[in-house]
Each structure stands twice: as C-alpha cells, then as structure tokens.
Amino acid sequence: MTRPLLLTTGEPAGIGPELALMLAARGQLANTVAVGDPQMLRQRAALLGLAVEVVEAAPGGLDISSPGRLVVWPATLRAPATPGVLDPANARYVLETLQIAVDACQAGQAAAMVTAPLHKGVIIEGGFPHFTGHTEWLRDACGVDEVVMLLATDAALHAKNPLWQGSGDLRVALVTTHLPLRDVADAITFERVTQISRLLAADLRRQFGILNPRIAVCGLNPHAGEEGHLGREELDTIIPALDALRADGLDIQGPLPADTLFTPRHLAGVDAVLAMYHDQGLAVLKYAGFGQAANITLGLPLVRTSVDHGTALDLAGRGTADPNSLGVALSLAQRLAAQRASTLAAP
C-alpha cells in the first residue's frame, strides 16, 4: 500500500479540525491519515452535523481515510477544546501532533506531512516563548541549518483573476519570514541571500522537477534602491550575492523593483520569485489566489505543505470555512512526494 499523507489538525479551537472533517465528508482525503484528538474530532463532526466516522488507528498503520471516514493517529488534548476559544494548555498538544508527523516521515511511515493552521500566540503563552511558526519549528525538529518558505498557486486559478491571465504557476519564496519589519534589513545578509537562493533552486529541481529553474529576486527598497539613493542594501548586499550566484551557474535575475516584478510581463518564464520579506511577496500571492494556494517548506529531509491561511477563530464551529486551500495542500503534497521520490531514485 502507498504510504499515507499525514494531516496534522492544527489549533483545536480553530478551523483546522473541521476542514479535515469537511474533506473527509466529501471523499477528498484519499491516501490520508489525520493526526489529532479523536474525541475532539467526533465532537466537532457532531457540532457541524457532518456524517463522518472518526476511526482511531495505531500510529504507523497503513489504514487510510475514505469517503465519510476519517482515520486518525491519536494525540491527546490537554484541555477541552471550544471552537473560537484559545487555551494555552493545548499548546503542547499542537506541537505533539507535529512531532508525530515528522517522526513518521523520517521513519518512512508517511510520504509527506500536511499541516492545518496553528496559532503562534497561544503556543508562546503555553510555555514555548521562542516559537515563531511551523517553518522554523520544522527546521529545528529536522536538524537542518536553514529552510525556505515558499507559497504557490495553480495556473488554472488565474483565469478567475484578469490581472493574472496568461501567467503560469506563481511561486513566491522568502528571504526572511516572521520578523518585525524593523528587523528585516539587518537580517538580509550576503550569506542569507545566497543560502536561501541555493536552497530554493535545489528544491525547485528536486520537488518540482524544474531542471534549470529561473528565479527573479525583489529588491528590498522602493525601486530596488534607486542606485543607492533610496537605501544601500541592494548595492552593498543583494547585488554582490546575486552576482556570486550567477557565477555559480544559477539563472537568477535582479534585484528588481517589487512593485513591477509582480506583473505578467515580468513573470513570464520565471519559475519562482524570491521576496525579501513576508508581506512583500505574500500579499501579492494571496491577492492572486487566496484560499487556493499552498505553503511549502523547502530544505527539509521530508515533504511538508500547509494551507495559505490562519486559524480563523471567528469561523470555527460554524461549518462555513472554505477547505479548498487544504485540498490544494494535500494534492500538492502528493505530487511533490512522488516527484521527490522519482528524483532521489534517478541515477
């Protein structure tokens, strides 16, 4: 039997558990096992009136979900979960679901992991003051030096948005992730730009099957610094880094003004955009395909995808949340895992 995808159900007070249940009810969890508290999932299914059988299975087992049936590798809540009401007591539970998924992927028991949204603030309040997000936690859990956050949409979705007609898949990676804006410039170093660019190029080859990826890089400052008149980060750091990468054979453009890079003409033939900071790149991507995109962590020894949204506490327990992004994340995880296996098996 094919190794399953593992879906961590995320913050129990948020929409993650019900998104998993909705997809199970629709028969859209093929080859998937959830990781979470089975009793909480049964209660949430009953609250929403979803006819889903929640089946607890032994971790490592190969039983998978099917229409109307959600197979769960169990983790135990520390406190009862009320939709929309955060409880720091459950912070450890959320991290435990992630650890189960990481361990299973590394042991070869799962093909990939897909994560529903968590809430950073409540995990910090729950006794983990240095927690900054899934991406950084996975980096440390897997023992790698650096990872890259990449969000991707599907070209088929752009037909719904006239601005993007004629453009292909939109993939946006980040040099810095969850940092206050005040700290971003100091975090953009020659070493970081070159390391993130190399990781991005390597996983575009390994996980997306793009043999010679073409990457376009945003400048940090307006107009990419206007030759030093609007900031020197481009001249002092970014341009030397990109020159070094080109000398190593990477097909990399920039730095380019971010306000014009994200247009179909400039994106033509580009496989990924590398933005300097979180909102510079992700605001545009989410405008192009919010709810229809997935978050991918590159640089890990495993495949991990996630949704492009948060816990939506205001929607939790109502049954009105949109599960499409989770569906995209699951589909993409399956495809990336197959591509990664094929690449690793190649002579």
Indicate the low-confidence ranges by residue numbers.
Answer: 162-167
Q: What is the element string, with H for helices and E for strands? A: EHEHEEHEHHEEHHEHEHHEHEEH
Main sheet attributes: strand count, strand direction, barrel closure: 12 strands, mixed
Structural class call reads alpha/beta
Number of distinct beta strands: 12
Percentage beta strand: 15-25%
- According to CATH, the fold-level topology of the largest domain is Isopropylmalate Dehydrogenase
Q: Radius of gyration, Cα only, in angstroms?
A: 20 Å
Give the count of structural domains: 2
Write the CATH architecture name of the largest domain. Answer: 3-Layer(aba) Sandwich
So what's the CATH class of the largest domain?
Answer: Alpha Beta
Widest sheet: strand ordering: 3-4-2-1-5-12-11-6-7-10-8-9
Overall mean pLDDT stands at: 92
What does this protein look like?
There is one protein chain. By secondary structure, the chain is α/β, with parallel strands linked by helices. It has 2 domains: 1-144 and 300-347, Isopropylmalate Dehydrogenase, CATH 3.40.718.10; 145-299, Isopropylmalate Dehydrogenase (3-Layer(aba) Sandwich). The chain is 38% helix and 16% strand. It contains 12 helices and 12 strands. It has helices at 16-25, 38-48, 91-106, 120-125, 134-142, 181-187, 190-206, 233-247, 258-261, 264-267, 278-289, 324-345; strands at residues 5-8, 32-36, 53-56, 69-74, 112-115, 148-152, 171-174, 214-218, 251-256, 272-275, 294-298, 304-307. The protein has a 12-stranded mixed β-sheet, with helices on both faces. Strand 1, helix 1 and strand 2 (32-36) form a beta-alpha-beta unit. The two termini are 25 Å apart. Mean pLDDT is 92; it is low at 162-167.
